[in-house]
């Protein structure tokens, strides 16, 4: 109920701004691009978060509760995880190239532009979605559920939010839902990686590792997808490499996400970390 009330409140506050932006942008792009309206909605949500956290949860330091603290440790965790996400995508497609399931198409003249675009998209999406899902939503779920239940609820909601599409598309790409759940769980474990210990206090965790991992994955996949760097050869069924070219909807991609999940799980449960 708290989640619904918070989101509904953000929508109501944003309507006077978001609705005119939506109609203006839709008319000027012939419905091809609607970006400013959802961005304005998210900005209103973020601006209202501190008041929500203070008023509903009585948090004296709302941003600290949402995962923004520790300064240099936050950025160090973000940077390491961002690089790890890029390396992970490189290994996934490198394996496909090595065994002949895909071919390398090479860089085009627009590669520098795509590199910059991908970097901005990766950083922006990683920060925005992690604040929403592993910052605020996970905190809300952890108030009423066990850590394990909150994790799988969070991962399932994350998957559903990314899988809203016509029924025919859902049935055709259903393995992607499993992939999104695995990714959501891995990001929760990344959120729970301890970055410091304080004397006789619980481990301190921040949003940096989750935001960095998410951003690195998005950035690297953006390069592969938009640049068409790697194309499947068709030597194996599409469900192996990814239905529609999406690695989240393929056996290889699911295995890759399972490995990432295992690594983040191990890091979040390391009792010997200092």
How would you describe what is shown here?
By secondary structure, the chain is mainly alpha-helical. The protein folds into 2 domains: 1-65, no CATH class; 70-268, no CATH class. The chain has 11 helices and 4 strands. It is globular.
State the gist of this model.
The chain has helices at residues 2-28, 36-57, 62-65, 72-98, 111-142, 147-161, 167-172, 175-191, 208-227, 238-241, 251-268, and strands at 102-104, 194-196, 204-205, 230-232.
Keywords:
274 residues; two-stranded antiparallel ribbon; two-stranded antiparallel sheet
Strand order of the largest sheet: 1-4
CA-based shape: globular
Pattern of helices and strands: HHHHEHHHHEEHEHH
Q: Structural class of the secondary structure composition?
A: mainly alpha
Q: In DSSP terms, counting alpha (H) and pi (I) runs of 4 or more, how many helices?
A: 11
The average pLDDT value, as a whole number, equals: 90
Which ranges are low-confidence, i.e. pLDDT below 50, for 5 or more consecutive residues? none
Q: Give the percentage of residues in beta strands.
A: under 5%
Please bin the fraction of helical residues.
Answer: over 70%
Instruction: Give the count of structural domains.
Output: 2
- Report the C-alpha radius of gyration, rounded: 20 Å
**Distance between termini?**
38 Å
Number of strands: 4
Largest sheet: 2 strands, antiparallel
């Amino acid at each position: 109920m708290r989640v619904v009330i918070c989101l509904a409140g953000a929508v109501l506050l944003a309507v006077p701004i978001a609705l005119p932006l939506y109609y203006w942008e839709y008319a000027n792009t012939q419905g091809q691009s609607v970006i400013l309206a959802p961005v304005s909605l998210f900005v209103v949500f973020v601006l209202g978060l501190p008041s929500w956290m203070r008023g509903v949860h009585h948090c004296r330091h709302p941003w600290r509760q949402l995962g923004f603290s520790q300064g240099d440790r936050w950025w160090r965790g973000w940077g390491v995880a961002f690089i790890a996400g890029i390396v992970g995508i490189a290994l996934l497609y490198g394996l496909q190239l090595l065994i002949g399931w895909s071919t390398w198409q090479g860089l085009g003249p627009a590669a520098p532009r795509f590199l910059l675009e991908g970097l901005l998209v990766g950083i922006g999406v990683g920060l925005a979605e992690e604040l929403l899902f592993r910052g605020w939503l996970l905190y809300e779920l952890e108030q009423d559920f066990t850590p394990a239940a909150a994790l799988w609820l969070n991962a399932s909601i994350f998957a559903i939010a990314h899988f809203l599409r016509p029924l025919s598309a859902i049935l055709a790409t259903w393995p992607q839902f499993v992939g999104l759940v695995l990714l959501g769980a891995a990001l929760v474990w990344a959120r729970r990686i301890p970055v410091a210990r304080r004397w006789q206090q619980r481990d301190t965790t921040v949003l940096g590792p989750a935001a960095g991992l998410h951003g690195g994955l998005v950035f690297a996949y953006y390069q592969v997808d938009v640049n068409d760097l790697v194309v499947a050869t068709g030597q194996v069924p599409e469900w192996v490499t990814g239905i529609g070219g999406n690695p989240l909807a393929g056996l290889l991609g699911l295995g890759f996400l399972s490995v990432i999940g295992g690594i983040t799980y191990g890091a979040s449960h390391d009792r010997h970390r200092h």
